[in-house]
């Protein structure tokens, strides 16, 4: 009787959605490596990868093959279990953050509304921060378990950087949450569809959040844990084969998911500005696909901006990085929160 009460359609829908989102994240991460080198080539007046396949489009598969077939080396002096756990933890936490993202309006399949969101939990944005905060352990464990002084120093840098920038990121987000009054990601997107994008009301909050997102993803100018000229290769110096691939893929997945979350928080998610999609007279599934294309276009634009910044802005010194986080961004985020609270109180009178 208990088995009959299980909604198997619901379980199958969620499993298929998980597979699709994981696949999407992996494909975007894979081609972000290609896009990164093409953007670098453009800025440096060269072609970038152009040998593997037409226009070099098969280059990510060549890179994946190289990593898969490369000899795997585990240092004798390392802590083997933790050495393996580090990249696995980095990859898992990178993929977990996509679970609460509303990718578009629901699809209609067999008379059922299928939401394009794995879990619409009532603490959605807190779940994202929880997963991101666990991700730092992947860097710390990898740096410590390698038994290499450069890896350990990079791991300590990464941990202190992520802890320092999570605080202003959370404070910058409070302005948005004060306007919405809800922690659900779907509610945050719906609020922008009804009242306008949050970037209009929270420009300072967006700037702080964007800078912190660069730091959380270890992107230039905040790539101190991977500062090649200072730390040889950073926290994954002793890694090879697909363990190294997991660390590199996790960074690109984090960048993509960060851009999607930024889109949902400040740029309306799958909303098209100044357009009432319902007036188009299209069926529900077509509107859902258009919404998915819109959120992907916004996110990929921010991915391009992340790459653009990498090849145009020099790396900070570590003391500059810490001063920016603690002495500049936190006060700005607090000012933004106080102004937002004052405006909301004034509007309620």
From TrEMBL:
Main subcellular location: membrane
Keywords: Cell membrane, Membrane, NAD, Oxidoreductase, Quinone, Translocase, Transmembrane, Transmembrane helix, Ubiquinone
UniProt-listed Pfam families: NADHdh (PF00146)
Mode of membrane association: Multi-pass membrane protein
E.C. numbers: 7.1.1.-
GO molecular function: NADH dehydrogenase (quinone) (non-electrogenic) activity
Sequence intervals crossing the membrane: 6-31, 81-101, 121-141, 162-180, 200-217, 246-269, 289-309, 329-347
Catalytic activity, as annotated: a quinone + NADH + 5 H(+)(in) = a quinol + NAD(+) + 4 H(+)(out)
Subcellular location: Cell membrane; Membrane
Listed InterPro entries: NADH_UbQ_OxRdtase_su1/FPO (IPR001694), NADH_UbQ_OxRdtase_su1_CS (IPR018086)
Family membership: Belongs to the complex I subunit 1 family.
Stated role: NDH-1 shuttles electrons from NADH, via FMN and iron-sulfur (Fe-S) centers, to quinones in the respiratory chain. The immediate electron acceptor for the enzyme in this species is believed to be ubiquinone. Couples the redox reaction to proton translocation (for every two electrons transferred, four hydrogen ions are translocated across the cytoplasmic membrane), and thus conserves the redox energy in a proton gradient. This subunit may bind ubiquinone.
NCBIfam families in alphabetical order: PRK06076.1-2 (NF004741)
Subunit structure: NDH-1 is composed of 14 different subunits. Subunits NuoA, H, J, K, L, M, N constitute the membrane sector of the complex.
Protein name: NADH-quinone oxidoreductase subunit H
Organism: Terrimonas rubra
Gene this chain is encoded by: nuoH
């Amino acid at each position: 009787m208990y088995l009959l009460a299980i909604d198997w359609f619901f379980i199958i829908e969620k499993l298929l959605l998980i597979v699709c989102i994981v696949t999407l994240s992996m494909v975007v991460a894979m081609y972000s490596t290609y896009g990164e080198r093409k953007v670098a080539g453009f800025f440096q007046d060269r072609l970038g990868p152009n040998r593997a396949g037409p226009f070099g489009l098969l280059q990510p598969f060549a890179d994946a093959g190289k990593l898969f077939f490369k000899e795997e080396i585990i240092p004798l002096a390392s802590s083997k279990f933790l050495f393996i756990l580090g990249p696995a933890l980095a990859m898992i936490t990178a993929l977990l953050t996509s679970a609460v993202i509303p990718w578009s309006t629901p699809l209609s399949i067999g008379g059922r509304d299928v939401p394009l969101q794995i879990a619409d939990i009532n603490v959605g944005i807190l779940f994202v921060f929880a997963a991101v905060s666990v991700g730092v352990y992947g860097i710390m464990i990898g740096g410590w378990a390698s038994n290499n002084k450069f890896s350990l120093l990079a791991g300590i840098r990464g941990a202190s950087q992520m802890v320092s920038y999570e605080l202003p990121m959370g404070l910058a987000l409070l302005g948005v949450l004060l306007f919405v009054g809800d922690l659900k990601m779907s509610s945050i997107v719906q609020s922008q569809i009804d009242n306008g994008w949050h970037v209009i009301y929270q420009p300072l909050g967006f700037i702080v959040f964007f800078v912190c997102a660069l730091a959380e993803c270890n992107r230039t100018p905040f790539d101190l844990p991977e500062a090649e000229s200072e730390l040889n290769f950073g926290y994954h110096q002793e890694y090879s084969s697909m363990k190294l691939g997991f660390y590199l893929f996790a960074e690109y997945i984090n960048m993509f998911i960060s851009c999607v979350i930024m889109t949902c928080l400040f740029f309306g998610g799958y909303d098209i500005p100044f357009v009432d999609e319902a007036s188009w007279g299209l069926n529900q599934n077509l509107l859902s696909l258009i919404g998915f294309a819109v959120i992907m276009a916004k996110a990929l634009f921010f991915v391009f901006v992340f790459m653009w910044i990498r090849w145009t802005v020099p790396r900070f010194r570590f003391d500059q990085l810490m001063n920016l986080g603690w002495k500049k961004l936190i006060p700005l985020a607090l000012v933004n929160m106080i102004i937002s609270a004052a405006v909301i109180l004034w509007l309620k009178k």
